[in-house]
């Protein structure tokens, strides 16, 4: 017959495998990436000494204010993330823990990821050009737009590129700046018809925008709740669904109207 163990001994024996599992979890790499606020770039300005947006074939105007695209920075696919990193990121407002596949769905190597992000950026810039020229009823046969923004990939700057083109060509349509002289930031994809799409990481992007002087942030309407989660004090959120809604909101903001939407 087996002798019955005393309760303290039984608890001790059960605790051993639990402790072993916890120790393994603490030192085993996990399939996550840790993200934080990244750089922002003024699409109306210059990047590494060259204009971000260059337009030929149509008159352009001198702009004031800033339109800042925003980014996040995440640990690379080859960087090991451990339980301590996850716990630390969970309790910090300037960090976000994301499944690695959600951050890097396009490949396993840095080269594959960089190539994918570069392709997405090019597609985003092409869509931004078409959306802006369609909005202004201009032909891409006459007006040529080139964009250069080093060290940034992906499609999330599409909306800001589009607004930058419009501001350089027309402004608010009444002789004023689309920005109203403010520093305005935002994020969102764009397609040729002017529809704005969600991007992710917006709570970190609002922090990056605040750090770099923005007071207004354009956010895809579907991501309003995420943007409000860690919203910096003094930052005004404007939800957008289309290019027209973004332009209308900025014009209303510049004119001091009460029709500016909010999250």
Q: Structural class, from secondary structure content?
A: alpha/beta
Side by side, the strands of the main sheet go 6-1-5-8-11-12
Helix content: 25-40%
Strand percentage, roughly? Answer: 15-25%
Explained architecture:
β9 (189-190) and β10 form a beta hairpin. The longest helix is centred in the middle third of the chain and has 27 residues, at 110-136. α4 (110-136) runs parallel beside α5. The protein is 39% helix and 21% strand. The protein has a domain at 38-71 and 121-255: Ribosomal Protein S5, domain 2 (2-Layer Sandwich), CATH 3.30.230.10. It has 263 residues and is α/β, with parallel strands linked by helices. A six-stranded mixed β-sheet has the order 6-1-5-8-11-12. It has a two-stranded antiparallel sheet with strand order 2-3. Strands 4-7 form a two-stranded antiparallel sheet.
Topology:
Layout lengths: L6 H21 L4 E11 L3 E2 L2 E2 L1 E4 L9 E9 L8 H9 L4 E4 H4 L6 H27 L7 E4 L10 H12 L13 E4 L2 E2 L5 E2 L4 H10 L4 E5 L3 H6 L6 E5 L2 H13 L8
Parallel strand pairs: 5-8, 8-11, 11-12
Antiparallel strand pairs: 1-5, 1-6, 2-3, 4-7, 9-10
Helix pairs in contact: 4-5
Protein name: Lon proteolytic domain-containing protein
GO molecular function, one term: ATP binding
Keywords: Signal
What is shown here, in short?
This protein is α/β, with parallel strands linked by helices and 263 residues long. It is 39% helix and 21% strand.
């Amino acid at each position: 017959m087996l002798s019955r163990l005393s309760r303290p001994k039984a608890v001790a024996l059960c605790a051993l495998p639990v402790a072993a599992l916890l120790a393994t979890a603490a030192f085993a790499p996990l399939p996550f990436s840790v993200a934080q606020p990244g750089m922002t770039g003024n699409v109306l300005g210059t990047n590494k000494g060259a204009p971000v947006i260059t337009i030929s074939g149509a008159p352009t105007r001198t702009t004031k204010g800033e339109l800042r695209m925003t980014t996040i920075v995440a640990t690379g696919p080859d960087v090991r993330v451990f339980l301590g990193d996850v716990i630390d990121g969970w309790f910090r407002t300037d960090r976000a823990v994301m499944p690695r596949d959600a951050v890097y769905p396009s490949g396993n190597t840095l080269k594959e990821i960089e190539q994918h992000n570069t392709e997405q950026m090019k597609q985003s810039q092409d869509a931004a050009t078409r959306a802006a020229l369609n909005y202004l009823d201009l032909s891409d046969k006459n007006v040529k737009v080139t964009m250069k923004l080093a060290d940034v990939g992906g499609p999330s700057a599409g909306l800001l590129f589009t607004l930058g083109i419009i501001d350089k060509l027309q402004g608010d349509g009444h002789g004023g700046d689309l920005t109203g002289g403010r520093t305005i930031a935002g994020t969102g994809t764009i397609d040729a018809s002017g529809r704005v799409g969600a991007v992710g990481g917006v709570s970190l992007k609002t922090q990056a925008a605040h750090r770099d002087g923005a007071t207004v942030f354009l956010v895809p309407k579907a991501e309003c709740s995420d943007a409000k989660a860690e919203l910096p004090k003094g930052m005004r959120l404007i939800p957008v669904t289309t290019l027209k809604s973004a332009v209308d909101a900025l014009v209303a903001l510049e004119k001091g109207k009460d029709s500016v939407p909010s999250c």
